[in-house]
Amino acid sequence: MKTIGLIGAGHIGSQVARLAVANGYNVVISNSRGPETLEALVKELGTNARAATPLEAATAGDLVVVTIPLKNIGSVPVEPLEGKVVIDTNNYYPQRDGQIPELDDESTTTSELLQAHLPKSKVVKAFNHIYAAELTTHGQPAGTPNRRALVSAGDDPSAKGTVTRMLDAFGFDTVDAGALKEGWRIQRDTPGYGPRRNAEELRKDLAAAKRYRDK
Q1: C-alpha 178 chain-centroid distance
Q2: Residue 1 C-beta-side C-alpha neighbours within 13 Å
Q3: Mean pLDDT of the chain
Q4: CA-CA distance, 169 to 137, in Å (whole number)?
Q5: What pairing do the DSSP bridges indicate for beta strands 85-88 and 122-125?
Q6: H helices within the chain, ranges in order?
Q7: Number of CB atoms found within 10 A of residue 212's CB
Q8: Residues 86-112: pLDDT tens digits?
């Protein structure tokens, strides 16, 4: 049984934890406020989950999900994540994160920022364009007609393969957007950001996406 570490226990983090436990993973979940604040969630998740610090979650996870406000990614532990697949769920919201010049001028993407912070990790973009509540209600078995699809983006093919297999277990097809730098195609205000899409529809949305400067 593999262990998923979660750095962040908000809407997306808690939902990923629920899906992980339901699919046989161990979960180590953390937030910035301390393990004691996660007591109710861990009780709900059951014996395969425990609360910890971000450092402990990073160390324990075979795969680690970073799902914290973008402005806080500098706090993500680096050394424990070396060589590991790290899923980035983030979106850039200036009203929350403050202005980030390299995102404002679109010279990089949120996931590339996390990859730069974690140079020896394998960062994959995922989970950023679905409403949290739908993670546990929209999943369907593989082969279901019109199954919902989610996007991944990353520079390491094997890491994306790991994420694809996990998404499939969680009930979703995966559409590969390409390298991390292509993650902008599913950022906020793009066609695929938010609505339910099957794989064919999502590929069309990615192709139709425009950078903010081109709108």
Answers
A1: 16
A2: 11
A3: 97
A4: 14
A5: parallel
A6: 11-22, 39-45, 54-60, 94-97, 101-104, 110-117, 132-135, 157-170, 199-208
A7: 14
A8: 999 999 999 999 999 999 999 999 999
